Amino acid sequence: MALSKKKVSNETIRRLALYLRSLHKLQEINLDIVSSGQISANLNVSPDQFRKDLSYFGSLGKRGVGYKVDNLIKHLEKILGIDKECRVIIVGVGKLGSALLAYPGFSNFNFRIVSAFDNDRKKVGKIINGIKIEEMENISRVVQKLEVHLAVLTVPSESAQMVATKLAKCGIKGILNFAPISLNLSNSIRILNVDVATELMTLRYLSRKACNLNTGSTLDRVTENFE
Amino acid sequence: MALSKKKVSNETIRRLALYLRSLHKLQEINLDIVSSGQISANLNVSPDQFRKDLSYFGSLGKRGVGYKVDNLIKHLEKILGIDKECRVIIVGVGKLGSALLAYPGFSNFNFRIVSAFDNDRKKVGKIINGIKIEEMENISRVVQKLEVHLAVLTVPSESAQMVATKLAKCGIKGILNFAPISLNLSNSIRILNVDVATELMTLRYLSRKACNLNTGSTLDRVTENFE
DNA sequence: CCTTGTGAAAACTTTCACAGCT
DNA sequence: AGCTGTGAAAGTTTTCACAAGG
User: Fold this and answer.
1) In chain B, domain spans
2) What distance in Å separates the CA atoms of residue B67 and residue A226, rounded to the nearest whole number?
3) Spatial distance between the Cα atoms of B159 and A148, rounded to a whole number of angstroms
4) Cβ within 8 Å of A, B 97-126
5) Of B136, B71, B149, B145, nearest to B110 (Cα)?
6) CB distance B150–A60 less than 8 Å?
7) Most exposed: A82, A105, B151, B158, by fewest CB within 10 Å?
């Protein structure tokens, strides 16, 4: 029961979110109690890892028994800060922004998209999935009025930094950035980047490595100076 | 000049992809030579980290000088396996799939989307961004004929496992999975998951933590057994 | 005097292994 | 007997610090 002020890693947090997703599924099947072994079987996580991750936040299970599904969900929601509704805006309603605007999977986790913004006059006023697209100028007003916490940034790279600066000014707490650039902001605001091309490159590397385990690939030795 | 068979971490690979992106930008500005300090200033990486990452693959720079931009790009492309075209298919042409199909940012890194598939008869035959949507039954034929390496999986969760199994059978080497489930496949096939809801939850946690640094938050102590 | 490349140290994360509760 | 919670060990990644080269 040590608990303590040990710092919790990002990876642990990301896994907590995964656990939550699994638990929701188990809840739908009316499972009452689950063990670390059962839950980790579906995900790619060891039972030890699961228990260790939870241990940073207290004793959430019962020895000899397991974890009560409902209870653990509530705890995880509280830890992640989604026990109360979290309001989100989408900035940039291109193809990707529209897709996210229409994505139904956020509400399971208490995220609510409350507004969307775009520069393009042709888009302003349109309604997608019940959300009216607003002018960029209104961001600040809306964020303050609706107490928006997070923004999903899906504008083109060229304008991403400018828009992000604006978001930071009006008090947004975090940005999920889909533009393939590194945003530069005060570090009171959290940023997570989602970069599909980077993921594809990583995947490309990994998949080739898997193939080349036995072929004497030339890949792994690249030493040659320029000129 | 040790090099060696040290294993390279995933994070290193992901960063190499980021470096590559930065280098492309520097190339456009006609910068000829860059130092580890310069390149890491834009990204969120230390110069040491940058040099260490590269050191796994040989001596790519010149002491006292820096790295030749063109040269480093070529090396990174070779390391990542994108010096030759890499063919990709998109499976599931819903909103997200369409958005990715129209995304122009893959070609910079030698990825080419060669085909797209959907179950929905109403979509089959349509052309998006020059790519004709095919029936799912054709996947195997197309993958073999066009020598497809990677698949982007954007089908609903319910069918994701089934489709993934099919992809594995026809020889796909890696899957970029947008469905929020853990795919279960032979480990000769690489999988990377992109899960926007998980990212949002992580962001929510991080942004709250940043706020609560000084407020005596109740968040970090949750000890209470059920019943 | 500049910047790379790299062992060695420090920091961090995961796995192990077992005590402790049900 | 079964499963959690957790220190300690093992393993991994990052940072440090400096020799070597331009």
Assistant:
1) 10-80, 86-194, 199-227
2) 9
3) 34
4) 98-100, 102-103, 105-106, 108-109, 111
5) B149
6) no
7) B158
DSSP annotation string for B70-112? HHHHHHHHHHHT-SS-EEEEEE--SHHHHHHHH-GGGGGGTEE
- Considering the entire predicted model, what is its pTM? 0.93
Residues 157-176 of B with CB under 8 A from A: 173-176
CA pseudo-torsion sign A118, A124, A127, A133: positive
CATH number for the domain whose boundaries are A10-80: 1.10.10.10
In a mutational test of the B interface, the residue from A207, A212, A218, A224 whose CB has the highest number of chain B CBs within 10 Å is A207
Q: Among 3.10.20.310, 3.30.930.10, 3.40.50.720, 1.10.357.10, what is the CATH number of A86-194?
A: 3.40.50.720
Q: Is the pLDDT of residue B217 over 50?
A: no
pLDDT at A211 exceeding the cut of 80: no
Mutation choice for A interface testing from B202, B218, B221 by most A CBs within 10 A: B202
Tokens 């039954």 map to which residue?
A: B137
Across the interface, of A13, A105, A197, the residue whose CB is closest to B109 is A197
